[in-house]
Amino acid sequence: MKALFRKTLNLFVTYPVLWLPFVVTELLSIGLSSLHNLARKPLFDWFATRHTAYGGEIHVYDQVAQHKTMMALFPLDWGTHYLVAYLTAGSLVLTAALVAMVLHGEKPDLAPAVADLRRYPRRIAFYALKYWALSLLLYALIVLPTSSLYQSLPNLTLTNWNVIWGSGALLTMLLSAWIMAPISLALLRPADAAPVSSGQKGLARYFSIAVTVAVFLLARLLDPLILKLIGKNTYGHAIFSLTSLPIHLPSVLLLIAIALIASEEPQPDFPPLGPRIRKILEPFMPLHFGPGADGPDE
Protein backbone atom coordinates (compact mmCIF):
# COMPACT_ATOMS: atom_id res chain seq x y z
CA MET A 1 0.00 0.00 0.00
CA LYS A 2 2.81 2.42 0.90
CA ALA A 3 4.73 1.58 -2.27
CA LEU A 4 1.61 2.12 -4.37
CA PHE A 5 0.92 5.46 -2.68
CA ARG A 6 4.51 6.66 -3.23
CA LYS A 7 4.45 5.67 -6.88
CA THR A 8 1.03 7.21 -7.40
CA LEU A 9 2.02 10.46 -5.70
CA ASN A 10 5.20 10.64 -7.77
CA LEU A 11 3.23 10.34 -11.02
CA PHE A 12 0.66 12.84 -9.75
CA VAL A 13 3.31 15.47 -9.05
CA THR A 14 5.59 14.76 -12.01
CA TYR A 15 2.95 14.56 -14.76
CA PRO A 16 0.17 17.17 -14.37
CA VAL A 17 -1.22 15.99 -17.71
CA LEU A 18 -2.63 13.05 -15.76
CA TRP A 19 -4.98 15.52 -14.07
CA LEU A 20 -6.54 16.58 -17.37
CA PRO A 21 -9.06 13.73 -17.89
CA PHE A 22 -10.42 14.24 -14.38
CA VAL A 23 -10.60 18.04 -14.68
CA VAL A 24 -12.44 17.89 -18.02
CA THR A 25 -14.82 15.24 -16.69
CA GLU A 26 -15.51 17.26 -13.55
CA LEU A 27 -16.25 20.43 -15.54
CA LEU A 28 -18.60 18.53 -17.87
CA SER A 29 -20.28 16.95 -14.84
CA ILE A 30 -20.81 20.37 -13.27
CA GLY A 31 -22.37 21.57 -16.52
CA LEU A 32 -24.69 18.56 -16.71
CA SER A 33 -25.68 18.89 -13.06
CA SER A 34 -26.59 22.54 -13.59
CA LEU A 35 -29.38 21.40 -15.92
CA HIS A 36 -31.36 20.49 -12.81
CA ASN A 37 -31.19 24.05 -11.47
CA LEU A 38 -31.97 25.54 -14.88
CA ALA A 39 -35.04 23.35 -15.34
CA ARG A 40 -36.36 23.45 -11.78
CA LYS A 41 -37.78 27.00 -11.64
CA PRO A 42 -39.62 26.90 -15.02
CA LEU A 43 -41.11 23.52 -14.13
CA PHE A 44 -42.11 24.68 -10.65
CA ASP A 45 -43.78 27.78 -12.13
CA TRP A 46 -45.59 25.66 -14.70
CA PHE A 47 -46.95 23.14 -12.18
CA ALA A 48 -47.88 25.96 -9.79
CA THR A 49 -50.00 27.71 -12.42
CA ARG A 50 -53.75 27.47 -11.76
CA HIS A 51 -56.52 28.67 -14.08
CA THR A 52 -59.28 30.68 -12.49
CA ALA A 53 -62.96 30.57 -13.34
CA TYR A 54 -62.59 33.91 -15.09
CA GLY A 55 -59.93 32.73 -17.50
CA GLY A 56 -57.02 34.16 -15.57
CA GLU A 57 -54.02 32.48 -13.98
CA ILE A 58 -52.65 32.35 -10.45
CA HIS A 59 -49.55 30.69 -9.05
CA VAL A 60 -49.91 28.38 -6.06
CA TYR A 61 -46.52 27.19 -4.84
CA ASP A 62 -47.73 24.34 -2.68
CA GLN A 63 -46.54 20.79 -1.95
CA VAL A 64 -48.50 19.41 -4.91
CA ALA A 65 -46.57 21.60 -7.34
CA GLN A 66 -43.31 20.77 -5.59
CA HIS A 67 -44.00 17.02 -5.79
CA LYS A 68 -44.86 17.23 -9.49
CA THR A 69 -41.67 19.17 -10.12
CA MET A 70 -39.58 16.56 -8.32
CA MET A 71 -41.20 13.73 -10.30
CA ALA A 72 -40.60 15.56 -13.58
CA LEU A 73 -36.95 16.15 -12.70
CA PHE A 74 -36.33 12.54 -11.63
CA PRO A 75 -35.67 11.17 -15.18
CA LEU A 76 -33.46 14.18 -15.93
CA ASP A 77 -31.46 13.70 -12.74
CA TRP A 78 -30.80 10.01 -13.27
CA GLY A 79 -30.20 10.40 -17.00
CA THR A 80 -27.60 13.01 -16.12
CA HIS A 81 -26.17 10.65 -13.50
CA TYR A 82 -25.63 7.98 -16.17
CA LEU A 83 -23.84 10.46 -18.43
CA VAL A 84 -21.60 11.47 -15.52
CA ALA A 85 -20.83 7.79 -14.86
CA TYR A 86 -19.96 7.36 -18.55
CA LEU A 87 -17.66 10.38 -18.45
CA THR A 88 -16.02 9.06 -15.27
CA ALA A 89 -15.32 5.70 -16.93
CA GLY A 90 -13.86 7.52 -19.92
CA SER A 91 -11.57 9.57 -17.68
CA LEU A 92 -10.37 6.35 -16.03
CA VAL A 93 -9.52 4.80 -19.41
CA LEU A 94 -7.76 7.99 -20.54
CA THR A 95 -5.74 8.19 -17.33
CA ALA A 96 -4.77 4.52 -17.65
CA ALA A 97 -3.58 5.10 -21.22
CA LEU A 98 -1.43 8.06 -20.11
CA VAL A 99 -0.02 6.07 -17.18
CA ALA A 100 0.85 3.21 -19.55
CA MET A 101 2.84 5.65 -21.72
CA VAL A 102 4.80 6.80 -18.68
CA LEU A 103 5.50 3.21 -17.59
CA HIS A 104 6.82 2.42 -21.07
CA GLY A 105 9.18 5.39 -20.95
CA GLU A 106 7.14 7.50 -23.38
CA LYS A 107 5.96 11.06 -23.07
CA PRO A 108 2.25 11.06 -22.06
CA ASP A 109 0.25 12.37 -25.02
CA LEU A 110 -3.48 12.94 -24.82
CA ALA A 111 -4.17 12.50 -28.56
CA PRO A 112 -3.34 8.76 -28.80
CA ALA A 113 -4.98 8.24 -25.40
CA VAL A 114 -8.24 9.69 -26.75
CA ALA A 115 -7.90 7.49 -29.84
CA ASP A 116 -7.58 4.50 -27.50
CA LEU A 117 -11.13 5.15 -26.28
CA ARG A 118 -12.46 3.67 -29.55
CA ARG A 119 -11.63 0.20 -28.23
CA TYR A 120 -13.80 0.66 -25.15
CA PRO A 121 -17.25 2.07 -26.11
CA ARG A 122 -19.31 -0.96 -25.09
CA ARG A 123 -17.23 -1.71 -22.01
CA ILE A 124 -17.46 1.92 -20.87
CA ALA A 125 -21.23 1.94 -21.44
CA PHE A 126 -21.62 -1.30 -19.47
CA TYR A 127 -19.40 0.03 -16.67
CA ALA A 128 -21.48 3.22 -16.51
CA LEU A 129 -24.66 1.12 -16.37
CA LYS A 130 -23.31 -0.85 -13.39
CA TYR A 131 -22.32 2.34 -11.59
CA TRP A 132 -25.69 3.92 -12.36
CA ALA A 133 -27.61 0.86 -11.11
CA LEU A 134 -25.48 0.72 -7.95
CA SER A 135 -26.10 4.41 -7.28
CA LEU A 136 -29.84 3.94 -7.71
CA LEU A 137 -29.79 0.95 -5.35
CA LEU A 138 -27.80 2.82 -2.68
CA TYR A 139 -30.09 5.82 -3.08
CA ALA A 140 -33.11 3.61 -2.38
CA LEU A 141 -31.49 1.71 0.50
CA ILE A 142 -29.61 4.53 2.27
CA VAL A 143 -30.35 8.05 1.02
CA LEU A 144 -34.15 7.84 1.04
CA PRO A 145 -34.37 6.20 4.51
CA THR A 146 -31.86 8.73 5.83
CA SER A 147 -33.94 11.60 4.49
CA SER A 148 -37.11 10.09 5.96
CA LEU A 149 -35.41 9.65 9.33
CA TYR A 150 -34.31 13.28 9.36
CA GLN A 151 -37.78 14.56 8.50
CA SER A 152 -39.33 12.43 11.25
CA LEU A 153 -37.20 13.96 14.00
CA PRO A 154 -39.17 16.18 16.40
CA ASN A 155 -36.38 18.76 16.73
CA LEU A 156 -34.87 19.55 13.35
CA THR A 157 -31.50 21.18 13.98
CA LEU A 158 -28.46 21.80 11.84
CA THR A 159 -26.46 19.41 14.03
CA ASN A 160 -28.98 16.62 13.44
CA TRP A 161 -28.79 17.28 9.72
CA ASN A 162 -25.00 17.16 9.66
CA VAL A 163 -24.82 13.92 11.65
CA ILE A 164 -27.60 11.98 9.92
CA TRP A 165 -27.15 13.19 6.37
CA GLY A 166 -23.36 13.12 6.62
CA SER A 167 -23.37 9.55 7.93
CA GLY A 168 -25.67 8.40 5.14
CA ALA A 169 -23.58 10.15 2.50
CA LEU A 170 -20.33 8.67 3.82
CA LEU A 171 -21.79 5.16 3.98
CA THR A 172 -23.06 5.48 0.41
CA MET A 173 -19.67 6.68 -0.81
CA LEU A 174 -17.78 3.90 1.00
CA LEU A 175 -20.03 1.12 -0.29
CA SER A 176 -19.81 2.49 -3.81
CA ALA A 177 -16.01 2.69 -3.62
CA TRP A 178 -15.72 -0.85 -2.23
CA ILE A 179 -17.95 -2.38 -4.91
CA MET A 180 -16.71 -0.40 -7.92
CA ALA A 181 -12.95 -0.78 -7.28
CA PRO A 182 -12.62 -4.33 -8.74
CA ILE A 183 -15.04 -3.43 -11.54
CA SER A 184 -12.76 -0.51 -12.43
CA LEU A 185 -9.78 -2.87 -12.55
CA ALA A 186 -11.68 -5.21 -14.87
CA LEU A 187 -12.52 -2.29 -17.17
CA LEU A 188 -8.83 -1.55 -17.73
CA ARG A 189 -7.72 -5.16 -18.20
CA PRO A 190 -7.76 -6.63 -21.73
CA ALA A 191 -10.79 -8.79 -22.41
CA ASP A 192 -8.63 -11.93 -22.79
CA ALA A 193 -6.36 -11.19 -19.82
CA ALA A 194 -6.28 -13.22 -16.65
CA PRO A 195 -8.66 -11.94 -13.97
CA VAL A 196 -7.23 -9.76 -11.25
CA SER A 197 -6.27 -11.48 -8.03
CA SER A 198 -7.98 -10.97 -4.69
CA GLY A 199 -4.83 -9.17 -3.51
CA GLN A 200 -5.15 -6.61 -6.31
CA LYS A 201 -8.86 -6.19 -5.62
CA GLY A 202 -8.15 -5.62 -1.94
CA LEU A 203 -5.45 -3.06 -2.69
CA ALA A 204 -7.76 -1.19 -5.06
CA ARG A 205 -10.55 -1.25 -2.50
CA TYR A 206 -8.43 0.05 0.37
CA PHE A 207 -6.99 2.82 -1.79
CA SER A 208 -10.51 3.74 -2.96
CA ILE A 209 -11.76 3.93 0.61
CA ALA A 210 -8.79 6.08 1.67
CA VAL A 211 -9.42 8.56 -1.16
CA THR A 212 -13.18 8.54 -0.50
CA VAL A 213 -12.65 9.42 3.17
CA ALA A 214 -10.17 12.17 2.20
CA VAL A 215 -12.64 13.73 -0.25
CA PHE A 216 -15.47 13.50 2.29
CA LEU A 217 -13.43 15.18 5.02
CA LEU A 218 -12.25 17.93 2.65
CA ALA A 219 -15.84 18.63 1.65
CA ARG A 220 -17.02 18.71 5.26
CA LEU A 221 -14.22 21.09 6.23
CA LEU A 222 -14.24 23.42 3.23
CA ASP A 223 -17.90 23.61 2.19
CA PRO A 224 -19.02 25.74 5.20
CA LEU A 225 -16.08 28.10 4.70
CA ILE A 226 -16.80 28.45 0.99
CA LEU A 227 -20.49 29.13 1.63
CA LYS A 228 -19.56 31.90 4.09
CA LEU A 229 -17.18 33.48 1.58
CA ILE A 230 -19.72 33.34 -1.22
CA GLY A 231 -22.53 34.76 0.89
CA LYS A 232 -25.42 35.98 -1.27
CA ASN A 233 -23.37 36.38 -4.43
CA THR A 234 -25.48 36.29 -7.60
CA TYR A 235 -23.28 33.56 -9.04
CA GLY A 236 -22.85 31.80 -5.72
CA HIS A 237 -24.16 28.44 -6.90
CA ALA A 238 -21.84 28.38 -9.91
CA ILE A 239 -18.86 29.35 -7.76
CA PHE A 240 -19.73 26.70 -5.19
CA SER A 241 -20.00 24.06 -7.94
CA LEU A 242 -16.55 24.94 -9.26
CA THR A 243 -15.02 24.48 -5.83
CA SER A 244 -15.69 20.75 -6.22
CA LEU A 245 -12.61 20.64 -8.46
CA PRO A 246 -9.99 21.19 -5.73
CA ILE A 247 -12.05 19.22 -3.18
CA HIS A 248 -12.23 16.18 -5.44
CA LEU A 249 -8.66 16.49 -6.73
CA PRO A 250 -7.54 13.46 -4.63
CA SER A 251 -9.68 11.41 -7.02
CA VAL A 252 -6.88 11.83 -9.55
CA LEU A 253 -4.69 9.79 -7.19
CA LEU A 254 -7.31 7.05 -7.26
CA LEU A 255 -7.45 7.01 -11.07
CA ILE A 256 -3.66 6.72 -11.25
CA ALA A 257 -3.55 4.01 -8.58
CA ILE A 258 -6.24 1.93 -10.29
CA ALA A 259 -4.31 2.24 -13.56
CA LEU A 260 -1.09 1.10 -11.85
CA ILE A 261 -2.74 -1.90 -10.22
CA ALA A 262 -4.47 -2.93 -13.45
CA SER A 263 -1.19 -2.72 -15.38
CA GLU A 264 0.42 -5.37 -13.20
CA GLU A 265 0.12 -9.10 -13.75
CA PRO A 266 -2.12 -10.87 -11.21
CA GLN A 267 -0.17 -11.84 -8.12
CA PRO A 268 -0.75 -14.95 -5.98
CA ASP A 269 -3.68 -14.44 -3.67
CA PHE A 270 -1.64 -15.60 -0.66
CA PRO A 271 2.03 -14.56 -0.54
CA PRO A 272 4.62 -17.04 0.76
CA LEU A 273 4.62 -17.33 4.53
CA GLY A 274 7.48 -15.97 6.54
CA PRO A 275 9.84 -18.45 8.22
CA ARG A 276 8.47 -17.75 11.72
CA ILE A 277 4.85 -18.29 10.72
CA ARG A 278 5.82 -21.41 8.78
CA LYS A 279 7.64 -22.82 11.81
CA ILE A 280 4.54 -22.35 13.95
CA LEU A 281 2.12 -23.87 11.44
CA GLU A 282 4.28 -26.75 10.16
CA PRO A 283 3.52 -29.19 13.05
CA PHE A 284 -0.21 -28.72 12.47
CA MET A 285 -0.09 -28.98 8.66
CA PRO A 286 2.57 -31.60 7.79
CA LEU A 287 1.06 -32.47 4.42
CA HIS A 288 0.98 -28.83 3.34
CA PHE A 289 4.57 -28.08 4.41
CA GLY A 290 6.03 -31.47 3.56
CA PRO A 291 8.98 -31.93 1.17
CA GLY A 292 8.20 -30.48 -2.23
CA ALA A 293 4.92 -28.98 -1.11
CA ASP A 294 5.91 -25.42 -1.96
CA GLY A 295 9.28 -25.80 -3.59
CA PRO A 296 12.71 -26.50 -2.18
CA ASP A 297 13.38 -25.51 1.39
CA GLU A 298 15.53 -22.46 1.95
DSSP strand content: under 5%
Largest sheet: 2 strands, antiparallel
Number of strands: 2
Q: Order of strands across the widest beta sheet?
A: 1-2
Could you walk me through the main structural features you see in this protein, from its secondary elements to its overall organization?
By secondary structure, the chain is mainly α. It has one domain (2-264). It is built from eleven helices and two strands. The protein has helices at 2-14, 20-48, 63-103, 110-115, 121-152, 158-188, 198-230, 236-242, 244-247, 250-263, 275-281; strands at residues 49-51, 57-59. The protein has a two-stranded antiparallel ribbon. Helix 7 (198-230) runs antiparallel to helix 10 (250-263). The longest helix is centred in the N-terminal third of the chain and has 41 residues, at 63-103. It is elongated. The two termini are 27 Å apart.
Give a nutshell description of this structure.
The chain has 298 residues and is mainly alpha-helical. It has 11 helices and 2 strands; from the N terminus they run H-H-E-E-H-H-H-H-H-H-H-H-H. The two termini are 27 Å apart.
Task: Give the SSE map.
Layout (H helix, E strand, L loop, with lengths): L1 H13 L5 H29 E3 L5 E3 L3 H41 L6 H6 L5 H32 L5 H31 L9 H33 L5 H7 L1 H4 L2 H14 L11 H7 L17
Antiparallel strand pairs: 1-2
Helix pairs in contact: 1-10, 2-3, 3-5, 3-10, 5-6, 6-7, 6-10, 7-10
